[in-house]
Amino acid sequence: MSAVLTAAEVAQTATSIAAAQxxxxxxxxxxxxxxxxxxxxxxxxxxxxxxxxxxxxxxYGWCLDxxxxxxxxxxxxxxxxxxxxxxxxxxxxxxxxxATGVWHHWSVTGDRAFVTRMWPAVRRAVEVVLELQAxxxxxxWSRDAFGVVQPEALVxxxxxxxxxxxxxxxLAELQGRLEPEWELxxxxxxxxxxxxxxxxxxxxxxxMDWYYPVLGGVVRGGAAARRLAARWDDFVVPGLGIRCVxxxxxxxxxxxxxxxxxxxAAGRPDHARTQLAAMQHLRAEDGSYWTGxxxxxGEPWAQAQNxxxxxxxxxxxxxxxxxxxxxxxxxxxxxFRGAGLxxxxxxxxxxxxxxx
Length: 356
Fold this sequence. Notes:
This is Prenyltransferase. With 356 residues, the protein is of the alpha+beta class. It has helices spanning 7-20, 37-49, 53-66, 92-109, 112-130, 155-174, 180-195, 207-215, 221-230, 232-235, 253-265, 269-278, 313-327; strands at residues 76-77, 85-87, 90-91, 142-143, 149-150, 236-237, 241-243, 250-252, 292-294, 305-306.
């Protein structure tokens, strides 16, 4: 299957990510920027998919070093150390995402020793996440340094957690373990997302809430195609990519490439390839990617400029993952198609009491 980028261009993008990696193994948003656990793992996956395995293993080593005694990570780190914490809160999705990264690295490399090394961290992180699941199945956003839970549940974060839990269950099986509680937690959040939108904060102006249920494996088959078609014109800017929010002229590269992955998972590779090509205006000469392109409301896109003025590692990583998904280059290219994971039922019957 043809790709928008050549192998050499993918390698160049991976080099730009590796150039930002710190001695500790942390991959900040950009050189001199802060590090958060989710985007750090996304960058590690990009490195793995591009064959930069030594750098990827260093990145996962940082996850081990930075994991706190309770199994969580802080939301934001600054500087080249896991001990310089700027925001100590625990984000459920940030903690869950390590399972996705470890499953991806295993899928690409088949390195069982790596899985064995990372397994204790994955197990402890999942237990932290499960503590934040509400009785209705949704996961609450975060917990602050004093243990106070932020009760808001987000569609995007919950869809991502759903996928991470499925990856965690698959990793457990590799370790010869059964984790029915994890499987049940994934089924409960999937049901909440499918049948009880009232349990989630209304963030429908954000494109991520539109495509993430597809990307996270919550919605599949015809339902996925219908979901993506329903708001296509609200978010897609022909020839440029997709908006981050539906009411602002701001196209963002990472969201566009996540949509590419969702389209691929929904069986729409041609549409996916078109969107991947559309966002290449964000590519810099060194293979890194600007975060987005913005203009003032009412102005033509021809006057738009790159904004914010930063080239983010996780944007480049998501480009790499999108290219890999479309070309089927690595054994991890089916990550968001659910390759190797237990199948998800396309339809479920809601037996919950009616909500008022």
